[in-house]
Specification:
Blueprint lengths: L3 E14 L4 E14 L3 E5 L6 H8 L7 E10 L2 E2 L5 H7 L4 E4 L3 H4 L6 H11 L6 H14 L5 H5 L8 H15 L3 E5 L7 H16 L3 E6 L2 H7 L2 E6 L2 E7 H6 L4 H11 L1
Parallel strand pairs: 3-8, 3-9, 6-7, 7-8
Antiparallel strand pairs: 1-2, 1-4, 4-5, 9-10
Helix pairs in contact: 4-7, 5-7
Bound molecules: adenosine-5'-diphosphate (ADP) and magnesium ion.
Magnesium ion binds next to helix 1.
């Protein structure tokens, strides 16, 4: 097995803008590696291309967007060359993603219970109902959902944005993927809950699960990441070991991010 569970190589993803007939190069030649067993962070301001980068990994770019070129090597296989059937087999199993807009990534017509059990069933991890339900409830509690029983029986529209986000986190804890991509997983949560969730993510890392963490919050990066990529305008402008980056930021933009975080 290679040392990097994920290697995004020279990825270009763009959107056609009908009004101006121009192409917006949202991701413009990005290369990012996630070392097996690490937490790797992508940090950058809003609009810098972080979400489009991770949605590209999952092929979730809809027209007028398009992945133009690049390679996305997951455990040595190019996800961009796989057919849908092969990809679906990996998703929710070896690969899992917590989306930035969680509410829309849960299915509105099914309860949380249905969706969590379905996730287990799809990947052959559903043996006994009672045991599966117990695991789901345990995951919801670990994701700091106080009223886990009620959440379990709710439809997504009955939950707040922060609760949906925690349901997605619970799903990640449940499936224990090899690689978890978490796009701003704690942005709509209050600070004590955020700290608890970040601890759970660290525990996953300590159990050998690789994590690609996307955030605009450099404070979160400082607490969590082993290795950091800084994005600006669709490009990686700086990368490094967390200590090197914080001690000697080379890029003007990284220095600005650090200064803003210290204020
Ligand atoms: N569906 C879309 N259609 C058109 N432009 C998009 C779409 N999704 C993202 N973009 C554009 O791509 C750029 C990068 O967006 P995004 O990756 O969401 O930024 P970030 O996650 O870093 O805040 C932005 O300029 C955004 O407006
Ligand atoms: Mg985003």
């Amino acid at each position: 097995m290679t040392e990097n569970i994920l290697e995004i190589r020279d990825l270009h993803t763009s959107f056609y803008i009908p009004d101006t007939h121009e192409l917006l190069n949202a991701v413009d030649g990005v290369s990012i590696a996630v070392r097996t067993g690490s937490i790797t962070a992508i940090v950058g301001e809003s609009g810098s291309g972080k979400s489009v980068t991770c949605r590209s990994v999952f092929h979730l770019i809809d027209p007028p967007g398009e992945i133009k070129s690049g390679e996305i090597m997951f455990k040595g296989q190019d996800l961009l060359k796989m057919n849908e059937k092969q990809r679906i087999r990996l998703y929710g199993n070896e690969l899992f993603m917590i989306f930035q807009d969680c509410a829309s990534s849960l299915n509105p017509v099914f309860t949380v219970r249905h969706q969590m059990l379905e996730l287990l069933r799809l990947h052959g991890k559903l043996d006994r109902w009672e045991e599966a339900e117990r695991q789901c409830l345990e995951a919801l509690r670990l994701a700091h959902l106080a009223d886990a029983e009620r959440v379990f029986r709710s439809y997504p529209f009955e939950l707040s944005g922060g609760m949906c986000q925690r349901v997605m986190i619970a799903m990640a804890l449940l499936v224990r993927p090899d690689l978890l991509i978490a796009d701003e997983p704690t942005t709509s949560l209050d600070l004590t809950i955020q700290a608890g969730i970040l601890d759970e993510l660290k525990k996953l890392r300590d159990q050998g699960i690789s994590i690609l963490l996307i955030t605009h919050d450099i404070g979160v990066v400082a607490q969590m990441a082993d290795y950091v990529y800084v994005m600006e305008d669709g490009k990686v402008v700086e990368e490094g070991d967390i200590f090197a980056l914080f001690d000697h930021p080379r890029h003007r933009y990284t220095r600005l991010l650090l200064e803003a975080a210290r204020k």
